[in-house]
Amino acid sequence: MILELKRQGLGVSAIARQTGLDRKTVRKYLERGLEAPVYGPREPGERLATRFGSYLTERLAAFPGLSARRLHREIKAMGYEGAYSTLTEYLR
C-alpha cells in the first residue's frame, strides 16, 4: 500500500496522513522497499485458569465465601503462573 501510494506520486507526509502511520515509519518502509505489516486479531490462547477449573469449582462449591485472593494463593502453590486479574476474570 505504501509503495503503491508512492508510485502514484504522493509524498511521505501525504502517505502518512492517509495510512495513519508516522512519517518516519513511512520513510523506513519506502527505503527498505517493504510493505508495512498488516496485523489481524490474535488467536485466543488457552486460558491459564482452565487447568485448575475443576479444583476451583470444587473449592467454591464446598466454601462459597472463598475470596479470589485465597484461591489465587492456593492454585499458585499448585503451579499456576497467571496473574490475579486473570483468575478473577475466569471466576466471573
UniProtKB/TrEMBL annotation:
SUPFAM superfamilies: Homeodomain-like. Residues 1-60 form the HTH IS21-type domain. One of its GO terms (biological process) is DNA recombination. GO terms for molecular function: DNA binding. InterPro entries: Homeodomain-like_sf, HTH_IS21_transposase_type. Keywords: DNA recombination, DNA-binding, Transposition. PANTHER family: TRANSPOSASE, TRANSPOSASE RV3428C-RELATED. Belongs to the transposase IS21/IS408/IS1162 family. This is HTH IS21-type domain-containing protein. It comes from Gemmobacter lanyuensis.
